[in-house]
């Protein structure tokens, strides 16, 4: 199974090799959807330059050697040397039937599966997850789902901030209020409030501050009792993360936790090894690395501090230990860090240091998947009126409440509990989708009304398209009684009976089928480029193609049973692709809407 552009590309490349020699086989055929045909190949211009001939002559030679039998019409030369070709409708029908019978919906199996470590979410213990963490969480989760769907081995790593100097004051505060107190409960419900209370005491109470500092030292020395209290503090925080993850329908579990603390025992060795290798040296009392290619003011080499003069380690040391662990122990062949854009320099310096140390061989790809900011209507980082960062849970609840209004208006006839369920899907789906449909490194404005709109590139628009197809199928089943039931079960359970092939004859059927064939290549591109917004854009195009099809090709009113069944099969395939694509983004779709 091949998407049309990929299938055409290989035929064109055969022609390049035949016409101009093997060395031209790999020339990019530059196949684009055409304005006057299905596809246009724009390679003649580039090849003409290389071969020193006129583009139209090159085009003619390509045509002479091109065999599109079984796929498309012989191409026509247009303008300066464009090659226009129209696909054979039978070929499209055959490919469409093939993806309908394939549980991967045409997604190619990777030639050699990668082991991909995805570092995402990574909130900080005893701190509220802010909207920035929303983005790293949903983008990372969509990538994990997509790579896994394609057959790669995915290792999720939730690099939570669970270590460092604030833990002295947090532990002392927990001891002060008592673990079973209402104040301690805040860790599970409103971690920022817990943190602020500890902070206030630290700033205002000298004795407390002294205790807190001493506690950091006992914690870092590995004192068992202190570690035990620390562990309980982290556990309470995990409850909070879990609530957010389950509300968001995110696949992260406790097994994926690999917080900063888990590298603690490796930090000294990490520093020593870098020092022994001559990569790290002491500068102004601190142990630093100066990775190649980074300069600060006055063109001076830029240091990355890995051990402070007091012996303490920092964020960078932990990431160096982590990257070594990921390659050496976890066997990563690709590592994706889904983290805010602000940390770009940090990761570049970490990657370069790890390369120099030989911990990140050339064969392993490391990428910082940069996450842009979520803005308020004023164009600044989203905050509450009082200026503090917004509580993620509040935002999610507001989304669901608003979505309840949308569904109440749309389907007042549905039972109360069903509307509540749908509101959850629309509200959470709407927020996640708005995030995922934006390129991960661009900023976007948080606007619930737009996110929950039934029109435009939104989750509710796609969810509505799915619900609509499901309703068509139910009505088709009702209309044809027992027969309909057979149609229904054939569509949902392919083992029951051989399903009818999707009908690809009329223009709108053909246009829809062409879109359906792009699902597999889109998923592959999302995984290769870490770009979930491509899946979102694709699903939106697909839903629009479906609306066009449904407008022109009646299903329920169609008299001819064979045509009706074929169209129903095409609608069913559309539903599968929409639902699967949405699922790769972590968005679910309701039965009715
Ligand atoms: N906890 C950090 C933050 O909130 C993000 C950690 C990202 N991952 C990493 N390996 N550094 O900014």
From TrEMBL:
Its main location: cytoplasm. GO terms for molecular function: arginine-tRNA ligase activity; ATP binding. GO terms for biological process: arginyl-tRNA aminoacylation. It is found in: Cytoplasm. PROSITE patterns: AA_TRNA_LIGASE_I. The keyword Nucleotide-binding applies. Gene3D superfamilies: Arginyl tRNA synthetase N-terminal domain (3.30.1360.70), HUPs (3.40.50.620), Isoleucyl-tRNA Synthetase, Domain 1 (1.10.730.10). The keyword Aminoacyl-tRNA synthetase applies. Residues 462-593 form the DALR anticodon binding domain. Its EC number is 6.1.1.19. InterPro entries: aa-tRNA-synth_I_CS (IPR001412), Arg-tRNA-ligase (IPR001278), Arg-tRNA-synth_N (IPR005148), Arg-tRNA-synth_N_sf (IPR036695), ArgRS_core (IPR035684), DALR_anticod-bd (IPR008909), Rossmann-like_a/b/a_fold (IPR014729), tRNAsynth_Ia_anticodon-bd (IPR009080). GO terms for cellular component: cytoplasm. A motif ('HIGH' region) lies at residues 123-133. Residues 6-87 form the Arginyl tRNA synthetase N-terminal domain. It catalyses: tRNA(Arg) + L-arginine + ATP = L-arginyl-tRNA(Arg) + AMP + diphosphate. It comes from the Bacteria. Keywords: Aminoacyl-tRNA synthetase, ATP-binding, Cytoplasm, Ligase, Nucleotide-binding, Protein biosynthesis. Monomer. HAMAP family: Arg_tRNA_synth. Belongs to the class-I aminoacyl-tRNA synthetase family. This is Arginine--tRNA ligase. It comes from Helcobacillus massiliensis. The lineage of its organism: Bacteria, Bacillati, Actinomycetota, Actinomycetes, Micrococcales.
């Amino acid at each position: 199974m091949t998407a049309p552009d990929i299938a055409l590309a290989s035929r064109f490349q055969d022609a390049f090799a035949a016409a101009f020699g093997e060395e031209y086989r790999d020339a990019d055929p530059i196949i684009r959807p055409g304005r006057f045909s299905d596809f246009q190949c724009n390679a003649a211009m580039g090849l003409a330059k290389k071969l020193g001939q006129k583009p139209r002559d090159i085009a003619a030679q390509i045509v002479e050697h091109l065999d599109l039998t079984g796929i498309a019409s012989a191409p026509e030369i247009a303008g300066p040397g464009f090659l226009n070709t129209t696909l054979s409708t039978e070929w499209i029908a055959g490919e469409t039937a093939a993806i309908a019978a394939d549980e991967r919906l045409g997604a190619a199996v990777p030639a050699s599966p990668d082991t991909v470590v995805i570092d995402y979410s990574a909130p900080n213990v005893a701190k509220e997850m802010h909207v920035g963490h929303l983005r790293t969480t949903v983008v990372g989760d969509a990538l994990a789902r997509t790579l896994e769907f394609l057959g790669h081995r995915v290792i999720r790593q939730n690099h939570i901030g669970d270590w460092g100097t604030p833990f002295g004051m947090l532990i002392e505060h927990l001891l002060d209020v008592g673990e079973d107190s209402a104040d301690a409960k805040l860790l599970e419900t409103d971690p920022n409030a817990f943190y602020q209370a500890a902070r206030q005491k630290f700033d205002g109470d000298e004795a407390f501050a002294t205790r807190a500092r001493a506690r950091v030292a006992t914690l870092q020395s590995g004192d068992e009792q202190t570690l035990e209290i620390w562990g309980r503090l982290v556990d309470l925080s995990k409850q909070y993360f879990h609530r957010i993850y389950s509300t968001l329908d995110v696949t992260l579990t406790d097994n994926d936790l690999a917080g900063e603390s888990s590298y603690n025992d490796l930090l000294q060795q990490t520093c020593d090894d870098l020092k022994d290798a001559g990569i790290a040296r002491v500068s102004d009392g601190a142990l630093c690395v100066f990775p190649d290619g980074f300069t600060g003011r006055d063109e001076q080499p830029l240091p990355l501090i890995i051990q402070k003069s007091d012996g303490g380690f920092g964020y960078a040391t932990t990431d160096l230990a982590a990257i070594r662990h990921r390659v050496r122990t976890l066997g990563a062949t690709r590592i994706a860090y889904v983290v805010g854009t602000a940390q770009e320099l940090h990761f570049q310096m970490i990657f370069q240091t790890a390369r120099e140390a030989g911990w990140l061989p050339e064969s392993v790809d490391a990428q910082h998947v940069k996450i842009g900011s979520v803005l308020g209507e004023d164009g600044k980082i989203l905050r509450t009126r009082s200026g503090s960062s917004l509580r993620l849970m509040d935002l999610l609840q507001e989304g669901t409440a608003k979505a309840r209004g949308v569904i109440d208006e749309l389907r007042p006839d549905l039972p109360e509990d069903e509307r509540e369920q749908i509101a959850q899907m629309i509200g959470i789906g709407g927020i996640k989708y708005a995030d995922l449909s934006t390129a991960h490194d661009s900023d976007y404005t948080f606007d619930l009304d737009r996110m929950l709109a039934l029109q435009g590139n939104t989750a509710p628009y796609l969810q509505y398209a799915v619900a609509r197809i499901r309703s068509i199928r139910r009505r088709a089943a009702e209309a044809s009684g027992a027969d309909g039931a057979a149609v229904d079960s054939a569509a949902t359970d392919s083992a029951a009976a051989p399903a009818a092939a999707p009908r690809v004859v009329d223009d709108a059927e053909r246009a829809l089928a062409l879109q359906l064939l792009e699902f597999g290549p889109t998923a592959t591109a999302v995984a290769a480029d870490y770009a979930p917004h491509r899946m979102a854009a694709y699903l939106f195009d697909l839903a629009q193609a479906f609306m066009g099809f449904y407008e022109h090709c009646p299903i329920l009113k169609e008299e001819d049973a064979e045509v009706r069944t074929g169209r129903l099969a095409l609608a069913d395939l559309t539903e599968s692709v929409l639902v699967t694509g949405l699922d790769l983004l972590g968005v679910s779709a309701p039965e009715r809407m």
